Amino acid sequence: MNLLLKNGRILDPSRMTDEKGDLLIENGKIARIAKGLSRGRKDLPDDNAASATVLDLAGKIIVPGLIDMHTHLREPGFEYKETIASGCEAAVAGGFTSIACMPNTKPVNDTRSVTEFILRQAAQCRLANVYPIAAISLQSEGEFLAEFFDLKEAGAVGFSDDGRPVMNAALMRRALEYASSLNMPIISHCEDSNLSAGGVMHEGDLSAELGLSGIPGIAEEVMVARDLLLAEFTAAPLHIAHVSTAASVRLIREAKARGVRVTAETAAHYFTLTDEAVRTFDTLAKVNPPLRSADDVAAIRDGLRDGTIDAIASDHAPHGRTDKEVEFDSAASGLTGLEISLGLSLRLVEEGVLTLLQLIEKMTVRPAQILRIPKGTLAVGADADVTVIDPARRWTVDRHLLRSRGKNTPFHGTPLTGKAILTIVGGEIRFRDFEQ
After folding, report:
1. Is 43 exposed, middle or buried, given 0-12, 13-18 or 19+ CB atoms closer than 10 A?
2. Three-state SS for 393?
3. pLDDT of 385-394, one tens digit each?
4. Alpha helical stretches, state H, 142-245
């Protein structure tokens, strides 16, 4: 399919451009960006381009395909929560053309066969690009390193034991050194499981009031500090997942100032919600790391503003009803985020925390750079992965209408402004939510 996207606001952080114009997609690639393109032979000289389907996108924003570098697709092993197909359907509905999936499946993605299985399933879906993140350690048990080279050869783009911290500092050191030699990132789930043991929400006044065991911020921060020191010692790149506390932001900011090769991400719920969301014992707001205090939320926003936090991910963690409709202590942690992340993140622009160009950079260019994948740009010749956003579209989150199998979101009923209305992957329309 050849497409001519007309009259849109073309915003590309990879080239620091923000201008009104037209974008031609030909044979799955970005072919041309200019003003006043038409299907006439003068502008589009070959037969394919001359017959391109024209979409008038006046008032819409054309950006590189969004990239979510932290999702949980659950397959293999937990298909009742999510499948690769349903996760990819949710991804394109949320405007994401590329997603990276974490290894906490069953079996854990610690072998070539599991990585290759994920890629085969994704190829059959023909929706979003899927990039597997493989485990740091065998079975994510933190005892023995997985075979990094074999996993890279199979198609993994990074390593993480996400969901389970690597408590052994010597193992984490070796992981950083080994991954660095392969030019691949280590993605750290920073949590001291001894400090967080038994906790189910943020430790503070509210946890005491509710009588729920708390997870102190220091449980995250002590591991952030350790991994930053290891990255500094090894001179290896480190990426810190789902940053949630003010002290973590400060530690990362200081490490960057020292020249440590560290990047970091957060998720929309960490700059949108506080621990007050669990006051009613709502298990849909139970996540790991937990929702923190208002001061932490303010610090996360400051970290996004000054560049300490490089990327915004969804940390999409779908669960079945049986995982959530139980006592708070017993409920699984995580919320579904792929279809909601963009709408929530656009609030940062409305509230003056980020410019639109900065926001899109954190959802396209920076994830692509961190994962070392050839995405996140509208440069001529690049893969035609494109997201079109209607900044004026008003909609309300309805968990019953989510494409994901996981309906577990505390944002049900939340009004949002701004939505992905067209998702193009490899030059093919994979999601469309507008009429002409």
Report:
1. middle
2. strand
3. 999 999 999 9
4. 148-154, 169-181, 193-196, 205-210, 218-234
Sole residue written with tokens 């995250």? 220
192 Cβ neighbours under 8 A, 6+ residues apart: 165, 167, 218, 219, 220, 222, 223
pTM for this prediction? 0.96
Question: Of 263, 418, 368, which is closest to residue 13 (Cα–Cα)?
Answer: 368
pLDDT tens, 391-405? Answer: 999 999 999 999 999
Amino acid identity, position 36: G
E-only strand ranges, 185-288? 186-188, 201-202, 214-215, 238-240, 262-267
Contact predicate 138/96, CB 8 Å: no
Question: Burial level of 229, CB count in 10 A (0-12/13-18/19+)?
Answer: middle
What is the residue whose two structure tokens read 């997609």? 25
**Amino acid identity at 255:** A
Residues with catalytic function: 315
DSSP 232: H
